[in-house]
């Protein structure tokens, strides 16, 4: 059965490139180009609530190492800025931490968690790394793209509700195939359950995260086969003097 699955997966690879994400030139990844919607003249600053959060984060570090807060502060800025990290967000974080802006740019362009272009209301990340690929992630990615109006990975739907990208391992291999929508994992996907999740988000709802197959977390779908007895307590099997 495993050999058959691998054969099917390999045939699916032959039908498409190793990556279906849109090709991007290196300067698009690492070099900022001013645009009407992303340039330093556009003001940005933390809301009162987020400034309080930022100060709490910075307080976790010694004063001489406050720049260590750059990643959580960029994340906070991205969340306030509708899911993407503009040049104004980077400059604001640099000023708040007393860092050269270039150091912040280096962080924001290195980690793919920081979106440097606007995204839709719902950010869909489909994992296509080997475990998910062997479990049918090609079909899941194709289903997502076709169900959202025949868009391609890296694109946003015309109504601005969804952006879809293809990503590497998200650490949920035992529940493959899976996708991340905003901050939540949706696992054990089929084409049908994928459409159901997307339809719920399209209607402004939030479906229950986790396995969509009905099983609990990563448990065997047929039920527990190990660790079925009551765990023994501390010292239960020690000699009397140590109990």
TrEMBL record:
Record keywords: 2Fe-2S, Iron, Iron-sulfur, Metal-binding, NAD, Translocase
Cofactor binding comment, as recorded: Binds 1 [2Fe-2S] cluster.
CC cofactor: [2Fe-2S] cluster
Gene3D superfamilies hit by this protein: Glutaredoxin, NADH-quinone oxidoreductase subunit E
A GO cellular-component term linked to this record: membrane protein complex
GO molecular function, one term: NADH dehydrogenase (ubiquinone) activity
InterPro entries documented for this protein: NuoE-like (IPR002023), NuoE_dom (IPR042128), NuoE_N (IPR041921), Thioredoxin-like_sf (IPR036249)
Alphabetized CDD domains for the sequence: TRX_Fd_NuoE
Region spans: Disordered: 203-243
Ranges of Polar residues composition bias in the record: 219-228
UniProt-annotated binding residues for [2Fe-2S] cluster: 127, 132, 169, 173
SUPFAM superfamilies per UniProt: Thioredoxin-like
GO biological process: mitochondrial electron transport, NADH to ubiquinone
Family: Belongs to the complex I 24 kDa subunit family.
Protein's recorded name: NADH-ubiquinone oxidoreductase 24 kDa subunit mitochondrial
Taxonomic lineage of the native organism: Eukaryota, Fungi, Dikarya, Basidiomycota, Agaricomycotina
């Amino acid at each position: 059965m495993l050999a058959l699955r691998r054969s099917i997966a390999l045939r699916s690879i032959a039908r498409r490139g190793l990556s279906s994400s849109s090709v991007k030139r290196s300067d698009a990844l690492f070099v900022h180009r001013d645009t009407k919607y992303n340039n330093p003249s556009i003001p940005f600053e933390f809301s009162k609530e987020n400034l309080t959060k930022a100060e709490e984060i910075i307080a976790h570090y010694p004063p001489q190492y406050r720049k260590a807060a750059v990643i959580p502060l960029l994340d906070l800025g991205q969340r306030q800025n509708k899911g993407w990290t503009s040049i104004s967000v980077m400059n604001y974080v640099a000023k708040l931490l007393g860092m050269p802006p270039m150091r912040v740019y280096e962080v924001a362009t290195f980690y793919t968690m920081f979106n440097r272009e606007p995204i839709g209301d719902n950010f869909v990340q489909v994992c296509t790394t080997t475990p998910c690929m062997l479990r049918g992630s090609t079909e899941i990615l194709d289903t997502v793209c076709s169900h959202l109006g025949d868009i391609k990975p890296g694109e946003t739907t015309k109504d601005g509700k969804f952006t879809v990208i293809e990503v590497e391992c998200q650490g949920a291999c035992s529940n493959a195939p899976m996708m991340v929508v905003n901050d939540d994992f949706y696992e054990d996907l089929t084409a049908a359950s994928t459409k159901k999740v997307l339809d719920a988000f399209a209607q402004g709802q939030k479906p229950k995260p986790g396995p969509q197959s009905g099983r609990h977390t990563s448990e065997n779908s047929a039920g527990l086969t190990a660790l079925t007895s009551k765990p023994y307590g501390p010292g239960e099997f020690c000699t009397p003097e140590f109990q």
